[in-house]
Amino acid sequence: MSDDLVKQLNIEFKETELVDTLKAIAERFAGKAVFTTSFGIEDQVITDLIFRNDIAIQVVTLDTGRLFEETYKVYARTIEKYNKPIIPFYPMHEPLEKFVAENGPNSFYASVENRKMCCHIRKVEPLGRALAGMECWITGLRASQSQNREGLEFFNWDGGFKVLKYNPLLHWELEDCQKYVRENHVPYNVLHDRGFVSIGCAPCTRAIQPGEDFRAGRWWWESNSKKECGLHQH
What we know:
Elements: H1 2-12, H2 18-28, E1 33-37, H3 41-52, E2 58-62, H4 69-82, E3 87-89, H5 93-103, H6 112-131, E4 136-138, E5 155-158, E6 163-166, H7 174-183
Parallel strand pairs: 1-2, 1-4, 2-3, 4-6
Antiparallel strand pairs: 5-6
């Protein structure tokens, strides 16, 4: 059923305008469509489209507890601008307290296993709760962000979370997002102006240098083949 639905939607909305597609998703999956934002520039584009057009899609965010101060500032500015709710999901305190007590606050630098466990506790498990009962998950993924994302389609089936995933900005370039937020006066994270193209937790994100890969600033101490946190690996 999921494969047939994915094929149908990819054909149905191939030439449809973005706002019209979001409205159609809100209608088709009434009350069961959710957009997850980390307040990066791509996510701010989608948030603006949803809020400015009063599209009935729930907007949520995963607050890991280790985000940049600048991220919280754009979070607050976004709520102020649109006067719409963004629902936060936090890590469960018991597994997080146990993990930190046993491994220390910065153990993610010590091994890939520790880093992935930290990501699981702070991001993957909260996402599972955010997606519970949902049928369509909207993301800000772009194909040019990494090799792992080049093969995506607008609609994909996420086998891990058992949900349809829609990637509306799949074929946008970073410059397209920058132009959109500039022309539409959308709040954005000022870290983007300092070379941060992909912004996650503060200890795990750095600015990239000219010519570096888009994902070079995430978990920079690891090899490129391992640079996913578990949110988009299904």
